[in-house]
Each structure stands twice: as C-alpha cells, then as structure tokens.
C-alpha cells in the first residue's frame, strides 16, 4: 500500500507530521481490524508520539489493546508501557548543544571581503615526555603465568583428544 510506505519513509526521514497524515490515509484505505491495519496503527502511534501528539498516541495505543490481531495487541501493550513510563529528568550537562550552522554560513557569506582573516599565532611546541624504561624483571612474573596457563590449556586439549 503506497500511503503506508510513504508514511514509513516520512517517519524515517524525521518528517513526523507527514508520516501521521500518510498513516491516517493508509488506515482509511485498509481494514482497521486486520493485521495490516494493526501494523499501520502501531506506526501511527509512534508517529503521533514523535510529532509531540502524546495524548493521541496514548489513546490509540489503549484502543489497540483489544485489536483483532494478536501481534498488534502485544505490540500495543509494549508501546503503552513505554508511553506511560515517567519521563526521565535530564540535566543540561548531559546534553550537547549543536550550533545552527545555517546561521553561521549566512553570516560568513555576508561579511566576505570586508574583514581580514584572523591572524594565527604560533604556539610553542609541547615538550614530549619520554616513557619510563620497563624493568624486565617485573614482566617475568606475568610471562611465567601466561606460559603456565598456555601449557595447561595445551595439555587439556591433548588429553581431550586422547579421550575421544
């Protein structure tokens, strides 16, 4: 069904309002109580939620708990559990602010040729810290342990080959 596919494509592009419109068209063209109708309505619930229409998403999801298709009922119960879960509080330091590069591009283009580029100041090269030399006596314990474990593994593999 074309409207259903268009809704999925719009949803995946992040165009949630278009997706809800397409899913509503697809639902009108299908039997709401069929498996396809249930799948369309599940997509519609997620599109409603993504578009900020949480009340519509909750209402439709609650209706789908009694849908004729078993898979749709199960998915609606899972979705309803997620939709009714309390929102987590987020702190500003947990979020990364992404600057609007479109505005920066517009400003850069309007000032081209008027100002000179900022001067680049050469910074002193950072001093490279050499690594401390490794004492070979300290690594002998690890090497002995690794060789011992390897020998035990080889012995166990050989023994298992003899048993069968």
Instruction: Tell me the CATH superfamily of the domain at 2-84.
Output: Tetratricopeptide repeat domain
Give the structural class.
Answer: mainly alpha
Mean pLDDT: 84
Low-confidence stretches: none
Q: What is the helix fraction of residues, given as a range? A: 55-70%
Total helix count? 7
* Shape label: flat
Order of helices and strands: HHHHHHH
- How much β-strand is present in the residues? under 5%
Cα separation of the termini? 59 Å
Concise overview:
This protein is an all-alpha fold.
Report on this structure.
The chain has helices at residues 2-12, 16-29, 35-50, 54-63, 70-84, 101-110, 136-163. The protein is mostly helical and 164 residues long. It has a domain at 2-84: Tetratricopeptide repeat domain (Serine Threonine Protein Phosphatase 5, Tetratricopeptide repeat, Alpha Horseshoe), CATH 1.25.40.10. Helices cover 63% and strands 0% of the residues. α3 (35-50) packs antiparallel against α4 (54-63).
Features:
single chain; 164 residues; mainly alpha; 63% helix; 0% strand; flat
How are the SSEs placed, and which strands pair?
Blueprint: H1 2-12, H2 16-29, H3 35-50, H4 54-63, H5 70-84, H6 101-110, H7 136-163
Helix pairs in contact: 1-2, 2-3, 3-4, 3-5, 4-5
